[in-house]
Design goal:
Elements lengths: L3 E4 L2 E3 L5 E7 L9 E6 L6 E6 L5 E3 L7 E6 L4 E6 L8 E7 L12 E5 L2
């Protein structure tokens, strides 16, 4: 099973930027469709953005035009560049496989807090 470790979160003011990283163990990362997910307090976990093994991307409407998902298969790493952050982006962010039947156990995630 592939293990994922998220990092890069923090406290940022509205309008600011953060870059999240997802480090994956295991050699199958390069063939996995991947996603960034987030869970805000009291809400269900939601898919924010996903990327195929070949680099095709999709975004939730709430982040389209502000977030960019990318991956470096040589480094077994996926990224989420988040710009123009809003308070409603505050959540714990997780990475995992896109397809539910391929997902690993959820990691600790990384906390993103957008507040002035």
């Amino acid at each position: 099973q592939v293990q994922f470790v998220e990092s890069g979160g923090g406290l940022v003011q509205p309008g600011g930027s953060l870059r999240l990283s997802c480090a994956a163990s295991g050699s199958i990362f390069s063939i996995l469709g991947m996603g960034w997910y987030r869970q805000a307090p009291g809400k269900q976990r939601e898919l924010v953005a996903d990327i195929t093994s070949g680099g095709i991307t999709n975004y939730a409407d709430s982040v389209k035009g502000r977030f960019t998902i990318s991956r470096d298969n040589a480094k077994n790493t996926m990224y989420l560049q988040m710009n123009s952050l809003k308070p409603e982006d505050t959540a714990v962010y997780y990475c995992n496989a896109f397809h539910s039947r391929l997902r690993s156990s959820w990691g600790q995630g990384t906390q993103v807090t957008v507040s002035s």
